[in-house]
Amino acid sequence: MKLYEKIHASYFSFIGLVIFVIGLIPAMIVQTNFSFFVTHISHLGTPSNILHVFFNICWFITGIFMIFFLLGFTYYIKDKGASGKSAWICFIFSFLSAVGILGLSIFNSDQAPDMHLLAEYLFFFTGIIYLFAYAVIENKISGFSKFQVFFNLIVAFFFLLYLVMIILDKINPGFAPEFQSFSEWLFLFSNLFWFLENGFYMLKHK
Predict the structure, then answer these.
(1) What's 48's DSSP letter?
(2) Nearest-angstrom CA–CA distance, 156 and 72
(3) In this predicted model, what pLDDT tens digit does every residue of 86-143 receive, in sequence order?
(4) Non-local CB neighbours of 145 within 8 Å, separated by 6+ positions
(5) Burial level of 14, CB count in 10 A (0-12/13-18/19+)?
(6) Is there a contact between 45 and 105 (Cβ–Cβ < 8 Å)?
(7) Number of helices (H) and strands (E), helices first, in the chain?
């Protein structure tokens, strides 16, 4: 694809993450009584946060850049030996997860809770699928190290940890809300780090 001949796909990941941080840090600073054990990510995107519009715009732009990165990553793993069918199936799930990010930025949990929840599920469950799928694909490609394969599983673990916390809360409402909030931040940051790490990997192993 000509776009990636001019701009290396990894740069889309780096720029997207920088934009997210630019939106995240100010929103965290102005959030009343912010705490990783109390404040959910979605709280930063609601009208209770005076910078919610700025945060959501940055979150949306990040999602767009991640889609461009994921498309470039798909071409990359194909060039390294992945079957076209497997690579594009992975892209579909990762693309849907990125669409979930776009949905989270458009529909905040206060004004559109149902749509926000739907977007969260889309981001979350397709995220688990593509992380495991990439691990399987990369394990079959000789150029990928075992660490690179295992890294996908590490990030997927944080997704699953949050899933466990959600299930426990459904079984016993109000169960350890501080751990539910913290596990949400863990899976978000681990997922964002996945993009960063894979971006650097692509630069190093062109």
Answers:
(1) T
(2) 21
(3) 999 999 999 999 999 999 999 998 999 999 989 988 998 999 999 999 999 999 988 8
(4) none
(5) middle
(6) yes
(7) 7, 0
